[in-house]
Amino acid sequence: MNVIDSDNRISRAHSLVDDLFDGNQTRNYQLAIRLGTDGISAAVWDDVFNKILAVEQFSFQKVFNVNVLLNLSTAAIRQSQVLGSSYKKVSLSLVNQKSTLVPNALFDSGEKEALLKFNHVLESGEITAIDNLSNLDAKNIYAYSEVVGKSFQELYPGLKINHFSSPLIESALLRYKNKEAVSVVVHVQNSFEQILVVKSGKLTFYNCFVFHTAEDFIYYLLFVFEQLQLNPESTDVELMGELDKKSPAWQLAYNYVRNVRFADQPDSFEYSFKLASLPKHRYCSLYAQFLLS
Predict the structure, then answer these.
(1) Eight-state DSSP code of residue 18
(2) Whose CB among 99, 248, 260, 289 lies 3.0–4.6 Å from 214's, allowing a Cys bridge?
(3) pTM higher than 0.90 for the full model?
C-alpha cells in the first residue's frame, strides 16, 4: 500500500486503469464515486463499449470531522488518475448508517425529515435527501453533510448523489428477480454490515449493522436467520465488499452457514484485464451505481 501524504492519513489501496483509458476523452465516460470516513473509491465505465476501464481506492485514517474528510478527499483527487477529470455523468454514493426505507404508499415528501428522525439523530449541517427505488416501489430517505455535497457538486457539475445502500438494494432485486428461493446478501463496507434478504424477487429484509469483530459479524447474520426462520443448512448467502478468505468474518460465516460464497461481479459489463487482480466481489456495489445512472 502506497502512502501518499506525510501524516499517514491517506493511502492508495488500488489504482488499476486500462490502457484504453484516454484522459482527453473522459467526457465520453461515466464515473462512480463512493465516499465514507474510511476512504474514497471510484470506477470508470465506457458505456459505448460497455467496459469498466478503471478502479481506484484511497483509504483514510483518523477522520474525525467533515473538514478532515474534505481535505483527504481533495488530496486523493489530486493524486488520482481518474478523479480529477470531467465526465459525461458522475454519481456519488455517500456511506453512512443514516437511511430509512419507506414504501411509496406511506411516503409523504413533506414528512421526510420526520420519518428519518424516527430511527436516526440528525447532526448540525446535515440535510435530508431521497432516493427513488423503482424496483422496490419505495423511497430511501437519508442524511448527509451539506458541505460535502456542495463541495463535490462544485467539482462535478450535474452530480447525482445517492445513499450507498440504494444501488446495492436495487441491484440485488435485479440480480434475483427470477429466483423463487430465498437469497441472503451480506455487504461489508468498513465497519458496516448490510444484510438483504430477497425472496421471489421481493426484498423481505434490509438492515445495516455496525460491527467491530468477527463475532459481531456472525451474530447479526445468525440473528437475521433466526428472526426470519431461515435454515443455515439450505439458504444461499452471498458475500460482497471488503472481506476475503483470510478475514475472520469469512471463516465464521463458512463455519455456520453451509451455502456461503463470494458474489460474482455484475454480468452487465465487460471488465478491463487490468482489474483481473481484484476479487470479483470487492466492488459489486460500486459497479451497481452504473446500473442506476
Answers:
(1) -
(2) 248
(3) yes
